[in-house]
Amino acid sequence: MKLKFDPSLQYQQDAISAVVGVFDGQPFVQTGAMAFQSIQIGGLFQTELGMGNRLNLPDDELLKNVQRTQEVNEIEKVAALEGREFSVEMETGTGKTYVYLRTIFELNKTYGFKKFIIVVPSVAIREGVLKSIDVMKEHFETLYDKAPFDHFVYDSKRLGKVRQFATSNQIQIMVINIQSFQKDVADKDLADMTEDELKKLNVINRENDRMSGRRPIEFIQAANPIVIIDEPQSVDTTEKSRRAIGNLNPMVTLRYSATHRNPYNLVYKLDPIKAYDLRLVKRIEVASVRSDENFNDAYVKLISTDNTNGIRARLEIHKEGKLGPKPTKLWVKQGDDLFVKSEEREAYRNGYMVQNIDCTPGSEYVEFNQGRFLELGQETGGLADDIMKAQVYETVEQHLKKERALKGKGIKVLSLFFIDRVANYRIYNEDGTTSLGKIGQWFEEAYRELTVKPIYKGLIPFDVDEVHNGYFSQDKQGHAKDTRGNTTDDEDTYNLIMRDKERLLDPNVALRFIFSHSALREGWDNPNVFQICTLNETQSADKKRQEIGRGLRLPVNEAGERVHDETVNRLTVIANESYEDFARTLQTEFEEDFGIRFGKVEKIAFAKLVRRAEDGTEAEIGQDESAKVWADLVANGYLNAAGDILDKFDPKNPHFELKVPEGYEDLRAAITDEVNRKVFKNRIVNARDRRELKFRKEVHLSEDFQKLWEKIKHRTRYRVTFDTADLIDRALARIKQIEPIKAPRVATTVVEVDITDAGVSADRQIATHVRDAEPVKVLPDILAFLQKETELTRHTLAEILKRSGRLAEFKINPQAFMAAVAKEISRALHDLMLEGIKYEKVAGAHWEQSRIEQDAEEGIVRYLSNLYKVQNREKSLFDAIEYESEVEKQFARDLDSNENVKLFVKLPSWFKIDTPIGSYNPDWAFVTEREEKLYFVRETKSTVDSEELRTKENQKIACGRKHFESIGVDYSVVTSLAEVAF
Fold it and tell me: Looking at residue 752, what is its pLDDT?
């Protein structure tokens, strides 16, 4: 199976453009033949050691570019440049590796840069990057005209690759694991080292006869590479690692992470909230497995240890009270007796005297007399085994439910179990045979029990021993072993996990339930993991985000294509804690890691809300009006003075109605949605808070529905026609608005070198000046470039250029001129296509209404929190309607209660109309009756979208309008039912 990649995902293009835009104005080098010329105009430069990148933009130009990019991406602008480091924040699972790899090719295409180094924090991530390059190679070759490139892992034993990195005229990508590389970095400047110290240096810093007497590091430095840091919060954390990266002599540093500690010059941000809202990752479900209280045995759990004020341990025990025993957390020290601490509960009488406490990080424990021993997170006398057994059962059942829901869709379902002791899954017997540990046995018991049930029988055509296996590191005897995740043996395991990635996605491969060591969690990154279950007997320091991050990626089908079906894209975490605790912990981590203030509404939060004036025009209300709305919400007790959302704001209550200032009643639903959007708890849902919708066959067979479907069912195709002369005129009008093209510039900085007993310093800046570069001597083929970008004929393009009156600017800065002109011609073409689009009915092609009944038979499951319960059962195909916003919820309620509405349908997700900018799924179809029966299709429009999204949405709606016109159906866009005339 080959994974396929979609090059048109807007958020990824935005992240790539954000970095490319930082260097706007940098001249372009087309070919190696132009290397000498590039000495003058930048992009690349030639030295005796090889060919390197060169940045010709001064810091003030970079700052302007950064600020412009930040404004576009709604990021607070920096006042001054924070070094030549630029940060991109992308939530786990949204394609961060794809983005920075494609950015390499885009920077090469746009500016001619060729030398890149990717620095990673661990072997697991290194293996993931190498795998990504391998599987994406063909994809990038297609996108970038088979641009030649070479990639390799830095290895001090293979220094020939380092020389190739410097001398090659192809794109070079070096991957460095920071731990292995920083060993090769000197602890101080070479100039300060003695002869003996120089001799002890690692190979990369020693002069080498095979490298013309040069030190290998000089070849890397001469390349002036663009350094890409993957997870910088785990890479440049020490002085030595920062020195190692600085020793590479980077032209600039690009930093990619989901959780930056220092987001220097942040140019793009896709945080968890945005990723969830855009459906770029799976939604999270939590299946909570908890025990009832059991007071029969002596229960003790070690919660933590502490040595800041004497050595002590925090335990949870059962303490006797007036109403009987209850769980109690308390601190104990050496010599304490739990019999006394528990108010003399008989179960603790013998063997529960605290004998020893160890606070050593990673090996904390408490020891009692008579040999009882507990590690951090362990418990005795509770129901730990029962809870884990129930977690296994729940995971298998959730898996089988998903298999049933996806039957016939070609999507492989995987479940991932993380355990902290290999022996709990697999036991190595003395005679050389293996047998199952307790977790392995529980799994097979649950699988056999569940797969004989009629509802799941025959779903998976494999025997129980074929469907599960373990991925563990091995000792010299080939036996699986417990590990820390950063040993040499773990490298082979990470490699195997990555090598098997595509194999595991094949539905014909039996393996579906995977067991792996918790320490290897970082290596797992399979998109079709739908269930994650952690079965640790000891407490794990791993965060919830790390746990769910293994399954957040959107799944792929058997053709290797990404699946964007929201009903499919659900990750279920089987937790041994309450749903509320899981959500609270996860939210705290988001606040700590991302700096997100959940539940806080800013004064400008409503500035983008749109109102329609009496003349029909629409405009945003702006920041001043937003502040008035915000102040009113504070006055009415929905927010406090800091903007925190208070309990009075409760839109899930069916009787709730938000009080808004006089004159803003039309925006009530939109304001409610905007405040509700700030509440993160709406984004994590309880796996049990969902139900199957009930299908009403009598409504489906009714005359009203049959006639409605007969009217709206027709499929259409579209044609685009436009006049070339019109295109030329529009393109010319746009080209005239382009800012004047500026020549490439060369920046010079003068610093004073100071030589003292303390050493040589060059940190006092005397002067800077900037001048235009020498004019370009060889001009690129502008018509070939524009033809490739726009797919228009050379004749049309030549006509546009001749009449533009700006062709002289092409010589000033060819790349900048070509890019700007191509963009404006493409925009003019896009506008014309949408205006000239015509739809026509396709004979015999229509949407089959039988699909609705088929969906109902397979089971349509929705979350209770987003369901409107239909009151008039004869009006709707289902007993409840799923809504996405307060506007939709109110529309559904109005349709239900209006006596003139005879029937209404929320159109299914597969009812899609083709448009040049993607498919369009209209919202509602309904039937009304007064003097006569009327049939409508309506789109309910939210007013909280950003300008860009609203434009694209409106373009799709315009296409939808023309589709329905061609089949004779009354269609329009409304914000409420009152706008529909019937």
Answer: 41
- CB-based contacts of 949, cutoff 8 Å, min separation 6: none
pLDDT, average across residues 421-438: 84
CA pair distance 777, 398, nearest whole angstrom:
66
Burial 830-848 (b: 16+ CB within 10 A, else e): eebbbeebebeeeeeebbe
Q: How far apart are CA 349 and CA 366, in angstroms?
A: 18
Helix (H, G, I), strand (E, B) or coil at 463: coil
**d(Cα 486, Cα 479) in Å, to the nearest integer?**
18
Around Cβ 576, how many Cβ atoms within 10 Å?
A: 18
Beta pairing, strands 759-772 & 745-756: antiparallel
What tokens appear for 600 in the block?
A: 């806080």
Distance between CA atoms of 871 and 880, rounded to whole angstroms? 9
The Cα 568–Cα 50 span in angstroms is 51
- Give the C-alpha separation, 925 to 969, whole Å: 10
In this prediction, residue 766 carries a pLDDT of 35
Give the residue with greater pLDDT, 446 vs 297.
446
pLDDT for position 462: 93
Could you tell me the two tokens for 290? 């908890």
CB 200 within 8 A of CB 263: no
- The β-bridge partners of 618 are 612
- DSSP structure class, residue 215: -
Cα 349 from Cα 337, distance rounded (Å): 9
Contact predicate 723/900, CB 8 Å: no
| Strand partners for 939 | 973
Task: Sort 119 into a burial class: Cβ within 10 Å, 0-12 / 13-18 / 19+.
Answer: buried
Q: Where are the beta strands (DSSP E) in 406-481?
A: 414-419, 426-428, 434-436, 468-471
Q: State yes or no: pLDDT of 758 exceeds 70.
A: no
Asked if 524 and 504 touch (Cβ cutoff 8 Å), the reply is no
Whether the predicted pLDDT of 747 surpasses 50: no
The length of the chain in residues reads: 982
| Beta-bridge mates of residue 611 | 619
Let me know: does 520 contact 493? Beta carbons within 8 Å.
Answer: yes
- CA dist 466 and 69 (Å) reads 52
- Residue 542 confidence (pLDDT): 52
- The pLDDT value recorded for residue 753 is 36
DSSP 8-state assignment for residue 234: G
- CA 765 to chain centroid, in Å, comes to 42
